[in-house]
Write a structure and sequence with these properties.
Keywords: DNA-binding. It comes from Alloalcanivorax venustensis ISO4. This is TetR family transcriptional regulator. The protein is mostly helical. The chain folds into two domains: 72 residues, no CATH class; 135 residues, Orthogonal Bundle (Tetracycline Repressor, domain 2), CATH 1.10.357. Helices cover 74% and strands 0% of the residues. Helix 1 crosses helix 2. The longest helix has 26 residues. The two termini are 32 Å apart. The mean pLDDT is 85.
Length: 228
């Protein structure tokens, strides 16, 4: 999988943003060497998969020494876990921003759905690898997946309840997040991105969410098959 300099810059911006925020919270400084290992490891994992990736592959991609690597990470799984945490933290940040700006439930549904899919597409096939790994209960990524879903579900329930005056069940929100998760895997089915599947999933997800939350006020025709 070849990446352009623009792709690399986009990933670097996300990683640096999250690491800087963590450094401020912890009163420390962000390590550029650690950031570069994370950035370049994304492509290695996406190309080779978790099982076929070794620490040496990560060293070669990031152009760092073994000593530098082990200063920040215990093993390759520790790297993948760090990448996944960055992905989750940035996703939750965008969710909060969109919900604060939304003026209606339809805006919340549309905007958060767009953010979810756009972010997944921008990160590429490594997302599929991480999401599949996180669904395994004995994986180091699993607790981060559960935490993210709990936070997102609670915030979505709270914001929708504020706008509709209905006491939304957080489990309903988590159910829709599970649907989104499965759609993200479907978009990268067989390891290749499909714009057609993306549009199909985006439209269907918005339709399902509006039907569940708004009922009769949902956008007409959102769940119907588009006319060819």
């Amino acid at each position: 999988m070849q990446r352009t300099p623009e792709d690399l810059d986009a990933i670097r911006q996300v990683v640096n943003q999250v690491l800087e925020a963590h450094a401020e919270e912890e009163g420390g400084q962000r390590s550029q060497a650690r950031a570069e290992i994370l950035i370049h490891s994304m492509y290695v994992f996406a190309q080779r998969g978790l099982a076929r990736t070794t620490v040496q592959h990560l060293l070669d991609a990031a152009k760092v020494s073994r000593r530098t690597f082990y200063k920040y990470f215990r093993n390759k799984m520790d790297v993948l876990e760090s990448i996944y945490r960055i992905f989750i933290d940035n996703m939750l940040l965008h969710f909060h921003q969109e919900m604060r700006q939304a003026q209606s439930v339809k805006e919340i549904i549309t905007n958060t759905t767009e953010v979810y899919f756009n972010y997944h597409v921008s990160m590429g096939p490594v997302i599929k690898l991480m999401m599949e790994e996180a669904r395994s209960s004995n994986s180091a990524l699993a607790p981060h997946r559960v935490r993210a879903q709990q936070i997102a579900a609670e915030v979505l329930s709270s914001e929708i309840s504020r706008l509709t005056q209905r006491d939304m069940e957080p489990l309903v929100m988590r159910t829709m997040l599970w649907i989104l998760e499965n759609y993200s895997l479907y978009i990268f089915e067989n390891g290749e991105f499909s714009a057609q599947r993306l549009e199909q999933c985006r439209r269907t997800m918005i339709g399902i969410a509006e039907s569940v939350v708004l009922g009769a006020d949902a956008t007409p025709g959102m769940l119907e098959r588009p006319q060819s």
